[in-house]
Amino acid sequence: MNQDPILKPEVILEHAARYCAEHGSKLTTKRRQVLASLITSKKALSAYDLAEASRHGAEATLLPMSVYRILRFLQSIGLVHRLATANKYVACAHIACDHAHTTPQFLICKICSDVKEVGVANSIIDSIASAAETTGFRLLNDQLELECLCSECAVPELGA
Amino acid sequence: MNQDPILKPEVILEHAARYCAEHGSKLTTKRRQVLASLITSKKALSAYDLAEASRHGAEATLLPMSVYRILRFLQSIGLVHRLATANKYVACAHIACDHAHTTPQFLICKICSDVKEVGVANSIIDSIASAAETTGFRLLNDQLELECLCSECAVPELGA
DNA sequence: CCAAAAAATGTTACATTATATCATTGCGCA
DNA sequence: TGCGCAATGATATAATGTAACATTTTTTGG
């Protein structure tokens, strides 16, 4: 779940701080801590994972309630995505590249929660949206989640 | 979440019973009861909704644990789909039409849980799968879930 | 028909994910 | 300085889901 160009977490966090400011809020120490965990983690993490992580070498210990609050805030301005199919959270892959992106599509490894965020071609979203329209439903969705196996977990039953 | 042609629940349940038999299992009274609730319901239901429903006028009262077990069984043979983004369950829309269908795509009303199941064009699934392949992920997904507003809930803020 | 095996269900306990609510702290700004 | 709002702390509880083992029901082979 890393950023597009390979940037250091601190660089990404600075972009995030600026991004918060644009939304009239601040990237407080604890928000920064949660976001940093997600940026550094290769895998999607649950709120309780993040709370647990805060108890090892982090600046502050966070209770789950605080983690949820912080995640909600980070989501609200688009720095974090919630993966509904996994009940886990990831940092947006485009924090440092000034947004204006296509609909995100998350490839989620069923086994290890490794996540890749890729863009969905507009043509695909358009077909999907128009299929929905014909049934009277209006598409709200701003992300697609797909159950996958990552390359490591896909290694087939060697010697099975 | 109704069946393609408009059929009576009993007719659909008979198809389901036959379908179970083909899989070497049986549509017991309680499985039938759960499936009937889902078929009759216009909306997706949670396991606890189904347990609750079993306490009003149904033949048997079901504990949540039983409901989960029954849902897992019905899913395993394809009579029921779980909507991961909503933590709810729906009857397959094609129980009575002898399967061989395309990947299902669920349009889920964010507000009222009304669900429409439509087929996804193979071309779309193919593009998605190949996009996944290029990142080293193998697509497992056998369904797409899309957050929508149904025609009733989409009525815009009249007089707001 | 009966006993042993398998399938289905009952029951209790518990794990995980998430929200509600009210108290407290920190911080900008008049 | 102190008012007011944003952020966080703290506790309780709700909602969703699984584990594990006991019991009942059904099937099946002798």
Account of the 3D structure:
The structure is a homodimer of 160-residue chains. With 160 residues, the first copy, chain A, is an alpha+beta fold. Chain A has one domain: Winged helix-like DNA-binding domain superfamily/Winged helix DNA-binding domain (Arc Repressor Mutant, subunit A, Orthogonal Bundle). Helices cover 36% and strands 17% of the residues of chain A. Chain A contains five helices and six strands. In chain A, the strands form two sheets. A three-stranded mixed β-sheet of chain A has the order 4-3-6, with no helix packed on it. The longest helix of chain A is centred in the first third of the chain and has 14 residues. Chain A is globular and about 50 Å long. The interface between A and B is medium-sized, with 31 and 31 residues. The structure holds a DNA duplex (30 and 30 nucleotides).
Overall structural class of chain A, as computed from helix and strand content, comes to alpha+beta
**CATH homologous superfamily grouping of chain A:** Winged helix-like DNA-binding domain superfamily/Winged helix DNA-binding domain
Mean pLDDT over the full residue set of chain A:
89
Chains forming the largest contact: A-B, 31 and 31 residues
Number of helices of chain A: 5
CATH class of chain A: Mainly Alpha
What percent of residues of chain A are in strands?
15-25%
Q: State the distance separating the first and last CA atoms of chain A.
A: 31 Å
Instruction: Output the helix-strand order of chain A.
Output: HHHHEEEEHEE
How would a textbook summarize the main sheet of chain A? 3 strands, mixed
User: Spans of chain A with pLDDT under 50 lasting ≥5 residues?
Assistant: none
- The total strand number of chain A stands at 6
**Rounded radius of gyration of chain A (Å):** 17 Å
| Spatial strand order of the main sheet of chain A | 4-3-6
- What spatial form of chain A do the alpha-carbon principal axes imply? globular
Number of domains of chain A: 1
Q: Within the CATH hierarchy, at the fold level, what is the topology of chain A?
A: Arc Repressor Mutant, subunit A
Question: Multimeric state of these chains?
Answer: homodimer
Helix content percent band of chain A? 25-40%
CATH-defined architecture of chain A: Orthogonal Bundle
